[in-house]
Amino acid sequence: MGITTITVQILLISELTLFTSLILPLPYKRSLISYFATSKSVTLRTIKHILLALYAMVTIMFIDSIHKVCINKGTPNLPFMYHAERNMYLTGFTLYIALIFYAFCRLLLKLHLDEMNASVLKKQSMSQKKFVEQILKEGKEKDQKVKDLEEKVKKNEALVKQAKNNVSEYTSLLKKYNQLIEKTTGENKKNK
């Protein structure tokens, strides 16, 4: 087995191990995902570039093994065909798992971002709920004040009507009084 085959096998085993660890419900998984999502570490970028180079190498090996299988289809060299087919399946499966792993990681990151957005929206809705409750409470207080003021206006209107009635009654009584005074003064003048 060559060093390239060993490298592909190690890459495949590490992909499967990492994929399995991400599928399992572990308690530290969420913090690990948030770290990878928000980290701007040079080490992570370096690892990403190394993985991209390894996947490029695996892709080239996959194309080469397909080429060897297609060219040597009818040759009696069975160990060579076995080696080419083994490399084709190994590199193909490694690339396939890499694509699935990439899609799965993207889904996990999207899920993490959606959970963060949901928690922010939940906090906003709670604060808006408090704000709406405060506005409703103030509205009820103002409605109560309006009702109280309307009652006062009705009482004041009743007092104004009463005052007008009192004024009209007073003026009519004053006129009668003045007439009586004139009569009495007129009679007193006649009597004298």
UniProtKB/TrEMBL annotation:
Membrane topology category: Multi-pass membrane protein
Entry superkingdom: Eukaryota
Entry's Gene Ontology BP terms: endoplasmic reticulum to Golgi vesicle-mediated transport; intracellular protein transport; protein localization to endoplasmic reticulum exit site
InterPro entries linked to this entry: BAP29/BAP31, BAP29/BAP31_N
GO CC annotation: endoplasmic reticulum membrane
Domain (BAP29/BAP31 transmembrane) ranges: 1-69, 82-112
Keywords assigned: Coiled coil, Endoplasmic reticulum, ER-Golgi transport, Membrane, Protein transport, Transmembrane, Transmembrane helix, Transport
Transmembrane segments annotated in the record for this chain: 6-28, 49-67, 87-109
Protein location: Endoplasmic reticulum membrane; Membrane
Coiled coil: 132-180
Principal subcellular localisation of the protein: endoplasmic reticulum
Biological role stated in the UniProt entry: May play a role in anterograde transport of membrane proteins from the endoplasmic reticulum to the Golgi.
Similarity field: Belongs to the BCAP29/BCAP31 family.
Protein name, as recorded: Endoplasmic reticulum transmembrane protein
Lineage: Eukaryota, Fungi, Fungi incertae sedis, Microsporidia, Edhazardia
